[in-house]
Design a protein that fits this description.
alpha/beta, Carbamate kinase, 10-stranded mixed beta sheet, 9 helices, 37% helix
């Protein structure tokens, strides 16, 4: 039996690109769809927040001389594209019905985001994909991921990272001695300046006691295993002590 009844999954745009820097990788998109379908089959109610970095990133805007507000608007539209890709992939694989809800009105392809309607969809077992972030520039998709999780009364935020299986003491791509945290408190994340998500989003999660699981988006079965209680990635919360993955758990 799943330990969570309702979750919000945060997918970066990179999760759609797989090993590539930009665009879409069929195997990566299929994996995302399969992971979500498996989770729904456990009876878990699913909300999903998607990023758009596989389509458009800030450095491209800088190269083109596009100002920040305009660039963010382009990024917002990129999240809508990813949401529709995900909806199509889940439908093609016979998954649950998917509703895309956007912070910007795009009525021809998606529903406007209305909190109580989103909750009603979840209660009926529909998979709800949240697109367009908050609908405003100067806000990453980290913040609306936490915000939507709180609004729909999710029990946890499951944050998928590309190629990184949790939170580490240092950048594991640059420091071979970096060690993964099994669990870490909100305060230790802030005190040590650990790279989890943007600080405003993280503080919002901390202030409302929303736990966060950080895991590798490319690991098959990760979402299902986490929701079944497996010790994958890094768990962040207030009801625990900070521990490293290779440190024995304390005796019960």
């Amino acid at each position: 039996m799943a330990r969570y009844r309702r979750v919000l999954v945060k997918l970066s745009g990179g999760a759609f690109a797989g090993p590539a820097e930009f665009g879409f990788d069929k195997a990566a998109v299929d994996l995302l769809a399969d992971e979500l379908i498996e989770l729904a089959q456990l009876g878990v109610q699913l909300g999903v927040m998607v990023g758009g970095g596989n389509i458009f990133r800030g450095r491209l805007a800088e190269q083109c001389g596009i100002e920040r507000a305009e660039a963010d608007n382009i990024g917002i539209m990129a999240t809508v594209v990813n949401s529709l890709i995900l909806r199509g992939a889940v439908a093609a694989r016979g998954g649950p019905e998917v509703r895309v809800m956007t912070a910007l009105p795009i009525n021809a392809v998606a529903e406007p985001y209305i909190r109580l309607r989103a909750i009603k969809h979840l209660d009926k077992g529909l998979l709800v994909v949240f697109a367009a972030g908050t609908g405003q520039p100067y806000v990453t998709t980290d913040y609306p991921a936490v915000q939507r999780a709180l609004e729909i009364r999710a029990e946890v935020l499951l944050a998928a990272k590309r190629g990184v299986d949790g939170v580490f003491t240092a950048d594991p791509k640059r420091d071979a001695s970096a060690r993964r945290y099994r669990t870490v408190t909100y305060d230790d994340v802030l005190r040590q300046g650990l790279d989890v998500m943007d600080q405003a989003a993280f503080i919002l999660a901390r202030d409302h006691h929303l736990p966060i699981h950080i895991f590798d988006a490319g690991r098959p079965g990760a979402l299902r295993e986490i929701c079944l209680g497996q010790d994958l990635g890094t768990y962040i919360g207030s009801d625990l002590s900070t521990s490293l993955a290779d440190t024995p758990l304390p005796a019960p």
